[in-house]
């Protein structure tokens, strides 16, 4: 626990130093660019740092006792940079996700496109403030993607074994592509579900979970970290067997919070996923369990950005009463059990096994 806390502090310091190093160039070009730095700092300050922790413990899984016996100790700085790169990549994904979902808030603060929207309005610039906001945030997301690559490359150059660094880069590249595929599949489901066979909707929703979130939230960070430590194919495969079902549980918990979460805790309005029209596993299970009129009402209201609090409450009650929430909770429990079984059999260090067991409980039971 103390080791994870120390990692969080090291990652925050690394991100802060990296962003501070960008400021002279931005000022030299134009002070008009400083909002990019301000908004980046806001996005990248605090947070749960789950991806950073999974990367670190993926590394520790394969390093184990070698940490004090060879040059691997010198790789800690590289691991912190790679973990920071993951957090910056995550911030980029959140910016783009909020644009696509037209979300107003992120972690209790205005989403990036809303910040640029307000900047336009406060200065009374010409043209459409909403269009400016989306464009400014889109570029911020792109900039953060570039910065995540930059800091990752800095870290990988410090890895003592060049082959391990190259393997970690391949894992990161795969993750980046898979998240993009998953994001597209997500928006595709929101718009095309009516043209799909009813019996395929649950499987399609599960596929979105796997590629949009499960892989890059848990599996990929573990694989990147293990690759940096020179993990064997068997070790990395075992960590994947742990990481994928846990990542699915992680996202299923997120889906429940997106409908029922406390806005004071999640930083987003209650029922936000209902207004955004998310076609999640929770929604697919609810549609399958509901009777005809209730299903039609869900389909009619889901995705309406102007849903009233009363309508949100009605949908929440319908989804809960039909048994869909209990069903998702059982799926979460099953996936955590599958992950824990894989972890128990994995050829990894005992210290990492202990910490990953704790993390599995934390990410699957979280309230934000």
User: What's the helical proportion of residues?
Assistant: over 70%
In CATH, the topology is named Farnesyl Diphosphate Synthase
C-alpha Rg, in Å?
A: 21 Å
CATH architecture: Orthogonal Bundle
**Mean pLDDT across every amino acid position:** 93
Instruction: Please provide the ordered H/E string of secondary-structure elements.
Output: HHHHEEHHHHHHHHHHHH
- Assembly type: single chain
Total number of beta strands: 2
What is the overall number of helices?
A: 16
- Backbone structural class: mainly alpha
With strands numbered from the N-terminus, the spatial order across the biggest sheet is: 1-2
Number of domains: 1
Strand content: under 5%
Q: For the terminal residues, how far apart are their CA atoms?
A: 19 Å
Outline: globular
Q: Are there runs of 5+ residues with pLDDT below 50, and where?
A: none
Q: Briefly, what CATH class?
A: Mainly Alpha
Topology record:
Layout: H1 2-29, H2 34-44, H3 50-63, H4 76-101, E1 105-106, E2 109-110, H5 112-123, H6 129-156, H7 162-192, H8 201-228, H9 233-260, H10 263-266, H11 272-276, H12 281-289, H13 292-301, H14 309-321, H15 324-345, H16 350-365
Antiparallel strand pairs: 1-2
